[in-house]
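Lecture 7 notes: from sequence to structure.

We start with a single chain of 233 residues. Read the sequence below before looking at the structure.
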Amino acid sequence: MARTATPKAEPLQDAPVNEEAVNVIQNLGAIAQDMAEERDLVNQLLGQAQMAGAFEDFSRTVRTSKLAHVKENKLYRSLAGMKNPHGAENLRGTWEEFCNLLRRSVDQVDRDIANLRAFGEEALESMTRMGIGYRELRQWRRLPDDARSALIEASKQGNLEAVQYLAEELIHTHTKEKDELQKKLTDTQADYDALGEVLSKKSAELDRTKQDLEKAKRRIETMSADDAAKELR
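Now the structure, written as tokens:
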């Protein structure tokens, strides 16, 4: 009896890959990782604040850079629902609560962030090492961009006297230019007011002339032809 030939099995083909689904999964994974890293950053800052002196031992620039990242990306919202260590109510996840947990005021942190944005990390770090305080930094933030850029470059050299001298010169120049601009503005306003007063007087005179003409017109209209002719002579 002849043997029946066994049919050959067809090789299995790989199912087509759904690239869109793969991309979505990869993106979700990246987002989840980013969220975990952001929570870790918030917890790291809070943990360091709980340790006596650990937060202050941080470089001010590094610390402020981390705080700026937390604020800009609203990472402090992840605190919502957590137990408040200083009260019975749960945290709402606000920037003020986050700053308070770090034992800093909102004004202090916002001021540090403003300095960081105005001068950059390298220059601010150098200024801090030279002992330049908040009052000076607040004054320097108000300078025009070109003057502030000059201070930034000078501060990177680490020469406190040179930076302070340059700052005084720039502030003096800026104040002088500001005063001159204010004087021009005041003079322009005075000229405008004077012109307005002249035009107002001219307008009043014109109104009186119009009224006189209208009165004369009405009087003539009530006169006889002979009287009107005599009036117009």
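Residues 11-15, 20-32 have pLDDT under 50 and may be disordered. Keep this in mind for problem set 3.
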